[in-house]
Amino acid sequence: MLSGVEIPDVRDLLRVLAERGWTLAVAEGDTGGVLLAWLTAVPGSSAVVLGGVVAYHDDLKREVLGVSPALIEQHGAVSAEAAEAMARGIRRLAAADVGLATTGIAGPGGGTATKAVGLAYVAAAGPRGQLRMHGFQWQGDRAANRQSSAEAALRLALDLLR
C-alpha cells in the first residue's frame, strides 16, 4: 500500500490510460497533492501522467485553471460546478486526454452552515466531452478526508475510462 491506497488501484488507472495511449493531468484542491503523489509513485507513470496543479486558493482556480469568477461566486469553490470546471481546465492547460479534479473542505475548520467539513467533489473530464462528477460527505479527520477524496478521484477516472 502507498499512503493507504493500494497500488493496484493506481496501477489499474495507469494501465488503462497506457492501453488507450491517453494522458492524464490533475487539479487538486482539498487533496493538496496527495493524488499526484500516488500516481507518480509508480515507476513508469511518466508515460501517461503529465503533471498537476494544486489550486488550493480560489485565485489559482480562476487564474490558472480558468474557473470563472462568476461560477465561484454563485456556487462556491467547493461545488460540483467548480470540480467540473477544474477538470476541464487542467485538461485544457496540460493538453491532456483526461483531466481529474478534487475540491473540498478537509477540515477540521472551514465548514459553514451550508457546506460542512468533509464535503468534497471529484470530477473527471475526457477527450470526447465526457464528464463524470461525484459529491461526498466524508466523516474522517483531515488526513482521512484528503485520502478519501484522492481514492474517489481514482475510482471516478477509472469509471470514465471504462
What does this structure look like?
The chain has 162 residues and is an alpha/beta fold. The chain has one domain (7-161): CinA-like (Maf protein), CATH 3.90.950. The chain contains 6 helices and 5 strands. The protein has helices at 7-20, 34-40, 58-63, 69-75, 80-94, 142-161; strands spanning 24-28, 49-54, 98-104, 119-125, 131-137. A 5-stranded mixed beta sheet has the order 2-1-3-4-5. Strand 1, helix 2 (34-40) and strand 2 (49-54) form a beta-alpha-beta unit. Helix 1 packs parallel to helix 6 (142-161). The longest helix has 20 residues, at 142-161. The mean pLDDT is 95.
Quick rundown:
The protein is of the alpha/beta class. The protein has helices at 7-20, 34-40, 58-63, 69-75, 80-94, 142-161, and strands at residues 24-28, 49-54, 98-104, 119-125, 131-137. The mean pLDDT is 95.
